[in-house]
Amino acid sequence: ETEQLCCKMEETYYLQDGYIEEDSDEDYTYGEVTVDGSLLSSGEEDLETALQNVQAVAQPAVDVPTAELTTTTHHPEVVEDFVRNFLVRMELVHTAQCFQAEWYELAQSGRLKGHQTEQLPDIYSQQRQLEGVVEGLREELHGYQEAARIAKEKYVRLKKERDYHRMHHRRVLQEKARLLADIKRMKQHFSTYEPMLQELQHKYEAVTKEKMLASLERDRALSEVGCLQSTLQSVQQQESQPASTGKGPAKPSSQHRQDKVEGPREKGRAGLLHQHTQSAELPAEPGNPYRHGTMPVCAHLTRTGGLQQSHTIQAHDFAISCLCLHPSKAVLVTGSDDHTWKMWALPNGELLMTGQGHADWLARVDFHPSGSRLATASGDGTVKVWDFARGECTLTFSDHQQPVWGCGWHWSGDCLASGGMDHCCKVWDAHRGQCLASLRGHADSINAVSFLPFSNTICSCSADKTLSLWDARTGLCVQTYYGHQQACSDVASTLQGFDLYSSDCFGTVLHWDVRTHSLKDKWDFGPHAVNALAPDPAGAILACAGGDGMLKLVETTTAKVWSLSGHTHACQAVSFSSHADTLFSTDSSGAVILWQ
């Protein structure tokens, strides 16, 4: 019985009263049997026949419908089955076992009364069944209520989103109308400049024509001068014949003749000689001390887990286009599109100094090797030198005709190189404020320029897809590297000076060997541009600032690449600390992130 209770926990049992009839003649109903009269005599009648006749007269036969005997419409339960079903339904198995054992003992001992074993009305069973139905309906109702609540929340959320998109759509329409009005106004404004531009174009063509005519006239004049010189020499030879007698005019000196006949060609050669004389003031290369020492390796290779984002400095309200670290102090300088540069104390990010003076965005900042001055290149076409001791700008170089993209100090600190959109790289005397040389050869904008460490060689990269190495003493291009398919955006050298890294606006980074002038490796991080490059002091890791806001760390020996995510806008500049334990990066939101 216990096993049946455990196996049929959810079933309901009904017990009906039944009796087992014994083989007895007391309650047996005898039917009438017709006896042939010939078998019995008319005067004889046995006892059994008489009793049957009396019972037949006293108890007439009652017809019971067959449907009532075969159809059962009620299923009453006895008390013990009701209790047992209740315990099974509640999963009280041990209690049901105890009840079954005690009930059986009571039944066997005869201590149960008649009213204790009577049947219960069907209303209890029906009530229990109805309770189960009600419970199921309640669960369904709860499910429907939950679904209705979720649908209501979704409806409210969709309604809010609809209202937000409607408001955004209205704002977009307003901005569109304003932009259309601005475009219309700009077209009208531009139409007023068209006659002036045409006039300037005509003037340019006229000046070009005059220049060509002047060049032809100059060549003609030089030929005439040559003829006059030959005529003069013949006359002098004729006059020199009576010179032996001590008579005649004195022969002019060679210096006097040179001064008299010096033309444009001789003046150009003299100017070039004077330029080279000034450039010869650059000191001789002392030898790179980093080529023989052991430099610190980037902490990304030595620290467990690599570089992680430490903290962020919100330095500017506009994009930060460049940064530079002090050569000996924990100081950082950032240059921004807000026309200013700022100096920050590390690592807490305290503002130390702000420089204002440029009329346009800053493209590059670079510390003097002594750390006492700062050079800045700007979109206003100037290069400025700032003296920290005096707290002001001491020099301004304005020979560039277009925005200046890059600048870099010579290792001695005596001169400065810069390059801009005028396709020209210039070398400046940092003491006298004069231009020492103009290096021309690129066919497009020069986007970055710097001196190789402890060298008189200038490296420049250009939008003409090439890199060039220049001798600052002679002003000549000594090597040009070809390999990029798009405009070059930045170039960087290792401290040892043996390797160069260049990037372009399609995310390609090339690794060059300066000693053999050959391409060593190539990495593709496109389609977004790589805006800046920075090798660590040992040259083992190269950091690349991407236009997609990702920083790429490349192990130069194995070409293994790691990605650092933390910027929400395009990365613009990147630099390692002198101990290679911290990486600094900036983006277009004006933030500086420290990675340690």
Task: Describe the fold and architecture.
The protein is of the alpha+beta class and 596 residues long. Helix content is 33%, strand content 29%. It contains nine helices and 30 strands. The strands form eight sheets. Strands 3-30-29-28 form a four-stranded antiparallel sheet, with no helix packed on it. It is elongated, with a radius of gyration of 54 Å. Mean pLDDT is 81; it is low at 1-10, 38-43, 61-74 and 243-280.
* Major β-sheet strand ordering: 3-30-29-28
Q: What are the segments in which pLDDT stays under 50 over at least 5 consecutive residues?
A: 1-10, 38-43, 61-74, 243-280
Question: Averaging pLDDT over every residue, what do you get?
Answer: 81
Count of DSSP helices? 9
> Into which percent range does the helicity of residues fall?
25-40%
Short summary of the structure?
The chain has 596 residues and is an alpha+beta fold. It is built from 9 helices and 30 strands.
What would the keywords be for this entry?
single chain; alpha+beta; four-stranded antiparallel beta sheet; 9 helices; 33% helix
Topology, please?
Elements (H helix, E strand, L loop, with lengths): L1 H6 L39 H12 L7 H5 L6 E2 H11 L3 H17 L9 E2 L1 H118 L14 H8 L2 H16 L19 H4 L6 E6 L5 E6 L5 E6 L3 E6 L4 E7 L5 E6 L5 E6 L4 E5 L4 E6 L6 E6 L5 E6 L3 E6 L5 E6 L5 E6 L5 E6 L3 E6 L4 E7 L5 E6 L5 E6 L3 E6 L4 E7 L5 E6 L5 E6 L3 E6 L5 E5 L5 E6 L6 E5 L3 E5 L1
Antiparallel strand pairs: 1-2, 3-30, 4-5, 5-6, 6-7, 8-9, 9-10, 10-11, 12-13, 13-14, 14-15, 16-17, 17-18, 18-19, 20-21, 21-22, 22-23, 24-25, 25-26, 26-27, 28-29, 29-30
